[in-house]
Amino acid sequence: METTHRVYAGDSRQLSSLEDESVELVVTSPPYPMIEMWDDLFSDLDPTVADALESGDGSRAFEAMHAQLDRVWDELERVLVDGGIACLNVGDATRSLDGSFRVYPNHARVLEAFESRGFDPLPDVLWRKPANSTAKFMGSGTVPPNAYVTLEHEYVLVFRKGSERREFEPRADRRYEAAFFWEERNQWFSDVWTEVRGELQAIEFDDDELRERSAAFPLEIPYRLICMYSAYGDTVFDPFWGTGTTTLAAMCAGRNSVGYELEETFLEVFAERVGTVPSLSRSVGRTRLERHREFVTERRESGKRLGYDADHYETPVVTKMERGIRLREVVDVDEIDDGYRLEHAPLSLE
């Protein structure tokens, strides 16, 4: 099985390299309006942002920043197939401007933007992202009433383009081989994720400034979302590519991918690290299988049954739909124009 992974250095407000309805899944984490590290970016895109911030008008700056993201959402509506899924990792912002402290609800503004474009909201996910500070409050400390809770969670907003679900041919191998284990379904499709940090290896970057500007989310998040909402053969798109976490997850999951990124340096750094993908994909697949075997042991010890045997692994599974699961690993990486071509093979267990 082959996959292709293309990355374009460009502005995702105009996806000129992507055709209409050419991707099945969007997984991304956009720059968050009203987070100070993104002020310069939004100000470069629209000078009125800088004017609003300088005058202390947070509401006007917030809306001007989201107006630039709206142009990306317009393009996503165009390139996503009918029934395709968009997953957006979004965090709210807290900020003091002109002596006033408040929260800026980015997730609510994005939800409104997608609904207005005809997307159906699906149940979302909260995942815990602890603050760097050991303090669990802001404001006046332990004296009421002027302290504020810290924001230690982010949202994964999930949308479907249109009201109709995607259809597949009956018993399509590319769908059933991409199935997830029963216990994975129970964990992944929970609306609160508390255990995503550090579970899967991520590419490391030596440049601290580059890492800070990337604001990369953990590899576990896009990997789960890709497994949850796409099948083998699908294409995953990230319009805010950053350090390439979504592409890395797509490579490990055996899906095609496309990315857009303004900062060409990120593309160069990723190119230096892509050689780690074969070992990483093998590690990810084996970790999933090992977790499943641990689940099997625990389930048997509790006296519960497992009703079926997996077709490709010497392990029982709970449901009939799990029998065809076939995990993949990358065995070869070639450079092509604007990206990479990968060869995948069934997961090696030796």
From TrEMBL:
Q: Which family does it belong to?
A: Belongs to the N(4)/N(6)-methyltransferase family. N(4) subfamily.
The biological processes this protein is annotated with in GO are: DNA restriction-modification system; methylation
Catalytic reaction(s) noted: a 2'-deoxycytidine in DNA + S-adenosyl-L-methionine = an N(4)-methyl-2'-deoxycytidine in DNA + S-adenosyl-L-homocysteine + H(+)
Q: Which domain of life is it from?
A: Archaea
Q: What is the name listed in the Swiss-Prot or TrEMBL entry for this protein?
A: Type II methyltransferase
Query: Taxonomy-wise, where does this protein's organism fall, top ranks first?
Result: Archaea, Methanobacteriati, Methanobacteriota, Stenosarchaea group, Halobacteria
EC top class, in one word? transferase
The UniProt GO MF terms for this protein read:
DNA binding; N-methyltransferase activity; site-specific DNA-methyltransferase (cytosine-N4-specific) activity
Instruction: State if Chaperone is listed as a keyword.
Output: no
Q: Identify the Pfam families for this entry.
A: N6_N4_Mtase
Source organism: Natrarchaeobaculum sulfurireducens
UniProt-listed Gene3D superfamilies: Vaccinia Virus protein VP39
